[in-house]
Amino acid sequence: MSLLPISEVDSETFISAEVSTVPTTPEGSLNGGTDKVDAESSGTRTTVYDADSDSSIDPRPVRTICCVGAGYVGGPTAAVLAFKNPQIQVTVVDKDERRIRRWNSRHLPIYEPGLAEIVRISRDGLSSSKETTPTSTEDDVDQQTQLENPVSSSARAPNLFFSANVAKCIRESDIVIIAVNTPTKMRGAGAGSATDMTAFEAVAADVVQHAKNGAVIVEKSTVPCRTAQMIQEIIAVRRPDAHFEILSNPEFLAAGTAIQDLLHPDRVIIGSATTERGQAAAETLAGVYAGWVDPSRIITTNIWSSELTKLVANSMLAQRLSSINSISAICEATGAEINEVSASIGMDSRVGDKFLRAGIGFGGSCFKKDVLSLVYLAETLGLKEVGAYWHQVVLMNEYQRDRFTRRVIKCLNNTLVGKKITLLGYAFKKNTSDTREAPALEIIKSLLDENPGEIAVFDPCCNPYVIESEIRQLHGYGPPALSDDGGAVKVYSDAYEACASSNAILIVTEFDEFRNNASANISLPPSQEPSKAVQEKIISEIGGVRDHASISYIQDKLNDEPNCAVDCPDCHRESCSDPAPRKLSESMPKKQVDWERIAENMGTPKWLFDGRCIIDIKKMSKLGIKVESIGSAGDGF
Question: Is 366 an annotated catalytic residue?
């Protein structure tokens, strides 16, 4: 079966399954929304969810949701769905039992600000005292009241669960969300640009096989346009007598702010068939989000538009980054300052200031993959010029990263032999442990070719064992890379030790801890104790204010966290013999590093290469450190 190009799709098969390919919401639709026309468009309509509408098709009550995939999308999404809908049981399933074990422990498999708090409250529950902890989700009157009003109530029953029993969870759920990884295909037709749908197709087949008749299947993974047809064809083969509505509900999460993106989304896109059943299913899912999202931000579209929206959105953002990075090269050659240029450009209301921060290039699991998927879509449709246009975004990103590495080598007299190089940051962006497509790994590969004395790596969020595992598997690199194996790379858990005796420090990730200006201080003074109102806000919504007093307030109401097994490998790796529950204060932001202390212990020459434009060059120069920054001609040395 081929999903692309669209012109080759047998649309009659899909239309016969009550899914329309009409690109707009028809006038007089029964989805319970209000049609609004964009005055600048050619009459294309989107539908804004209206919670007070008089739809002739009632949305189905949702009691159970199953999210298949416990990764960077599925885990946080399910946690917030459960947190904001305490009357709904939300279960996350994954065949990776080790990952499920970590979600059910104090060792969450991923780091996101606010995620630990959300999981603790939803997974373990809140109570007025430890003695009155709710132990079940029976629908007795008192407990149901507590579930429906978790803020004013003193207790809350757990409603977030993690399981490896995939079939059972799918079978028992009203809504099944597919949130598995869809990487770029590396072999065969379309290698290097097409989306690898292996995992998604396998999960879709499992969902169709086990879901109860009438369940709503939701595409949360980023998928090629027309993927819903693939699911419909699986249904036709495996469950021809069953009926499932398929929805597209793409995620728009940014690593490091995923929880805030879920709590305060710019928009929630729900794509569906334009039939009455399809629109009723969309309204059902919209009702789940309406528990906390303003109805005006819940937009329904046809399913093809929704699937394509995610690819286009990420490609547009990646394009902006590559555009400003291309200008940074001109700035370095002319003496212009990229921060001044981007600030001036960003003040133009037609352009805006988002994604105009120059750096060593974008990383993460989405941008490159989604741009390449758009390239493949264009090429298979015969639009070669369109594909070439978007492919240049990826090429510019790789050029920016490689240009930064070449600049490091050049400033160090074209030799790294016997020299220590320190990378501050390994994750692809700040406030996340996500290392997928991180520029750091490619930078390390290039530096290793220069035979340095040592490459030190420190990241405040990433687990050192994860970093070591990735470096050990450097693709195509012959000799061992890690120092423990006889190589040059050593991963540190302390920034000062990583920087000691270093000849050059590379800021690879824009963590606030690495800044050298007072305005970047991310720790609240102990005297700033929040009011009770702020504490209540933390209970009702994990948000921007996170300090010791308010976290202690939450801690007092939390039910006991699951204890780790005696043979817990995470405890063993962390040398954690104390089985006591982790305190939420452990996820508080760290303080900035003391650059004066670092400068005193560096080797000579002392170089700092700012790959994220976060350093005040003049202040660093006073410490005797030579600075080279993206988009700047340097500090005058």
Answer: yes
